[in-house]
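How a chain folds remains the central question behind the approach discussed here. This step matters because it turns folding into a mapping between discrete strings. The sequence in question and its structure tokens are set out directly beneath this paragraph.
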Amino acid sequence: MRRDDPFSRKPMSLGAVRDGAIRACRNAIEMMTSHALTLALQRLAHGAMVAAALLVILLPVVLIVWLSFFTNEVLALPPEGYSLRWYQALAGQPQFLAGFRLSAIVAVAATMISLLVTIPAALVMARMEGRGREILTNILMSPLIVPAIVVGSGLYIAFVEFEIATDIQLNGATLGLIAGHALITLPWSLRLLLANLGGLNPALNEAALSLGATPLVAALKVTLPVIWPGLVAAALFCFVVSFSNVELSLFLVAPGQTTLPIALLQYLQWKIDPLIAAVSTLQILIVAGALLVTNRFVSLAKVV
């Protein structure tokens, strides 16, 4: 059979070429339009999800702040009016002021202990490899895995046994409360520090050692300044976690001694009025103010 000679075919007419070009352009436009529409829908869905997440996060905060300005004692909608009555009433509630003072002292002390423990631990673990690092990480992160109420009950029993053996009282003592809060803040500090050390260039530390610096000097003058934002973020997380803890504190406080979350819980057992919302609003303002001031000097968006 004789094969067709491609050069013997008749050339396409100008109209056929034009129609083919038009069809190709139409197909290209349709594909580009379809792709652009898909991207637009993806952006719209992503924006809707972000907006929904922000709404879920911010709606309770806005509601609490709104309730704190209600005039009526019984929470009801619509409110009878708005005033600063409940903020003024805080002066007559010494349990809240005492609870705030104790919570602040315990949170600051627990944060300092957590950093003193996790900074050297993170520096060592960042250089470790293999199963040893995994085991050490699991041990230090275990308080985050176990529920806080289980940790509190376990510490209560352990402190009782310690008191029987040594005659040193930790249950009902501020020292025992600080120790318990330091235990539950350790995982938060360690996680942030390890994340920051993971992005550290090891050549910086090696250069300092090659120039005659000791490992301690290299850690203090090279490593820690580089991970300074991570240290600040770790301190903030530890403070907030300790300051807002309820479950563990319930087991370790002395009779008549309360932290601010416990004082709020006890008040709610007898009354439900906007005073609780006023106290919560002040807590929100304190934490938000601390975050804003810290972010002014250290960009938390880079580490959190």
Q: What stands out?
A: Residues 13-59 form one domain. The mean pLDDT is 77. The longest helix spans residues 14-67. The radius of gyration is 31 Å.
